[in-house]
Structures are given as C-alpha cells and as structure tokens.
Amino acid sequence: MPSFASDHYPRENPEAEEAIDDFLSSARLGKGPWDSQRRLLEQSPIYYSHRRNMWYVTGYNANEEILKSPSAQLQLDKRMDSIHPEWREHYSISKLTRWIAFLDGDAHKKVRLPLNTSFTPQKVEALRAGIRKKSQDLVASYIESGGGSFPDAVAYPIAESTLCEVFDFDISRIPDCRKLVNEMQLAFEIDVTPEQMEKADSASIEFHRFWHREYEDIAKNPEVVFGTDASEYSFHIEGLINFNNKPHYKIYFSTISQVEEILFRGTIYLEYESLSFARMEFNMNVEDRKDAANIFIRKKPSKMRVEVEKAQYIIDYIENNGKWYFNYSATDVEFKVRWTNRFFGLFSTNYVISSEIAITDRYNDNVIKFPRNERIRSTDVIAEKVEYFLDPTFWGEYNVIEPDQEITDAIQRLSDKLRRRNE
C-alpha cells in the first residue's frame, strides 16, 4: 500500500537528499552546516525527504510563518520521545526541559523573570557601542583573511562576547568553550553514536558547573539563596516594622520539610514602597549535617574531622537617588575540629571565622569597571599572615577601630574625619 508521502509529496530530489546527508553529518565531521543548508535552500525552502520521512524547512520566511503559528508549541517531551526515546537519561538533552528557549506559557515566564534585569533598555544601550566595535573588527578581519566560515569567524565570537558582557561571565574560566558547544550539539544528531552522546553529556555538565560558579555571589544574585522560583521555601510575612526610619515588610523564610539539600532560613526586610531588599539576615542549615563541611572545606588532612556548627550571614543595602546599592555584609562560620589520631579523637577544638565588608565611599562619575582578573570571586581562597599587620601604619587612618566597635559606626566616624581633613 503506497504511503501518504509518496502519493502527495514532491518526488525525491537527489541533490536535496545529498545536501541533507551532508548537513546531518557536519557536526560529526567537525564541519559547519551552512554550505549544505544553502544547497538545500536552493533546491527547495520546504522539502520532504522520502528517505528519512521528515520535513526540512530552510527558508527564513517559511520558518517564521511556521513558528508564529499557534500549532507550533514546542511540546519538547513528545518530540524527544520520538527522536531519542532514552533522552531523559542524558543530561545534554534532559536539561532542555529547564531552558527558557524550550519552555512555553507560564513556565517560560517564570524562568525569564530573573533574567529581565540583564535586558533593561539602559543596559542594552550601554553595550551598543562595544558590540558594534567588536562586530566591525571581526568583519574587517574576516574580509582581510579572504573569507571563510562567517559563523565561525564572526557570528560565534560576537555572540560569546555579548553574552559575557550582558551576564558578566568570565569566559576564561571555561577553557575550550567552542569545542564544548560543538560537543553539546552532537546530542541532537539523528545518527548520534553512544560515544558522541557521552561527550555531549560531559560538555553539558561542564557548562552547568560553569554557570553555577559564575552565579554564586549572593550580594549580586539573591536567587542563589531562593532559586529561580523559590519553590524550596516557605515565606511568612511577620508584619510591617520601622527599619532605618522607614516602613519595611519583615518576612521570615525557611526550607520546606521535604527538601534534603542544605539551604537557608532567615529574615528579609523589604522596603515598603519599592519592595527592594534592604536587609537580609539568614543562616545556612548546617546544624547536625556532617556533609556541610564539604561546602566550606576545599582540602584537609585525612585524619582531620570537621563539623560546621553555625553559618550566619547579614547583607545590607542602601538607597541613593532611587537606586539600591550594596552597603555592608557580615559572615560568621563556626567549625568544630578533631583529629582521629590524637587522644582517640575524643577532644575537639572550636574555630570561628568572622568577616565584614563595609562600603566607605561611593561615587558615580567616571566609574571604571574592575578588570576581571582583579575581581574577587566566591571560589577564591584568601590567606594572610600575622606579620603582615605588624606595621602600625598599615591601615593608616583606619587603624583605630576598636575590637568591640560596630564596623559601620567606626567607618562612618573615620569617613567624616577624612572628609573634614580634605576640606
């Protein structure tokens, strides 16, 4: 019995079929797909392959019309079930169920919301000149070299640099980025081999780790505490209070009982009118969790046993001309340490690490962005020796903060003193 396709669809086009074969093998061979796509487009912008029982749409106008159709909902699960029945077992594909480009409706809006701050008109406009200059330089170099693969020489580099600027990524922290991108794409080849799928999974996991390393800074990204939708937390508004001479909502949050991951609990102070974060006081749920030490300890002797007794944090923000700025943070982490090869491991010693950061001054004119290699990240390890601080003039005018004095009060007093001296 003849198939519907053979009765109603155009006859097989050998040149189009050859272009499709080249297109599908391009990733495996490490070649760009653009030449084969151009050849297929020249044969027909919409072509049905009898060999593969599949439609191929290469024309821009045809793709635009299809994507704008109400029937073009992604339905990722159904599509992947037909292409790769085992797709849920592979991170390179299963991750797509959480990617914004593969979500519809309310799920799409929920994931998009935390990204909105990176796409404000002001931020995009500020990047315009740099993107234009980068594009012009890449195109000039492309022409000077005699051409070649435009996506490799121009499109990919400008996309990579733009994403790094928009989201403040440090691409140097993920070596061979382009190679990993190519390996991830292997997962979507119809004739992908098990070895290629393994490479795609490994590349996807590496990108996942990179993403989390870039977004661990709680002062910059509150979603690190709450996640993108705060589904692991319960919130309770305790009331409206007076804080810094202004009304604020006081909101208590805690981890829901079903969550086993080590997360946080604490209090949020939201400014009443703007609903901006004014202050956060929170603890990591490290109590009675032996695995909590893995979060803080990068390397230790094999005979040492470490338990985290407490991890407490405070973050303050301050409003200036309608904008909120980071102003102060404090951290207190307490450890209990014992050695299994000393006194049968019966005795332990407690250590407390405390740190504070306070902004002493702020200016908005002629601001120069810190180079990436001069920025401190949450994964950096900072160590100092006592002798570095024996010089009584080391801290200059700041060398008079008493041990029990609030650092914010001391800095305010010292800042006023320095300002009067400079006047």
Which helices and strands, and how do they pair?
Layout: H1 4-8, H2 14-25, H3 34-43, E1 46-49, E2 54-57, H4 60-67, H5 76-83, H6 91-94, H7 105-112, H8 121-144, H9 150-167, H10 177-185, H11 194-214, H12 223-226, E3 233-243, E4 246-255, E5 264-271, E6 277-284, H13 293-296, E7 304-320, E8 323-339, E9 349-358, H14 407-422
Antiparallel strand pairs: 1-2, 3-4, 4-5, 5-6, 6-7, 7-8, 8-9
How would you describe what is shown here?
- It contains 14 helices and nine strands.
- The chain is of the alpha+beta class.
- Among the domains are: 72 residues, no CATH class; 140 residues; 40 residues, no CATH class.
- The protein has a seven-stranded antiparallel β-sheet with strand order 3-4-5-6-7-8-9. Strands 1-2 form a two-stranded antiparallel ribbon.
- The radius of gyration is 28 Å and the shape is globular.
- It is 36% helix and 21% strand.
Shape: globular
Q: Which band does the percent of strand residues land in? A: 15-25%
Model regions low in confidence, pLDDT < 50 over at least 5 residues: 1-7, 215-220
Helix run count: 14
Structural class: alpha+beta
Q: How many angstroms separate the termini?
A: 96 Å
Helix proportion range? 25-40%
Alpha carbon gyration radius: 28 Å
Give short descriptive properties of this protein.
423 residues; alpha+beta; seven-stranded antiparallel sheet; disordered N terminus
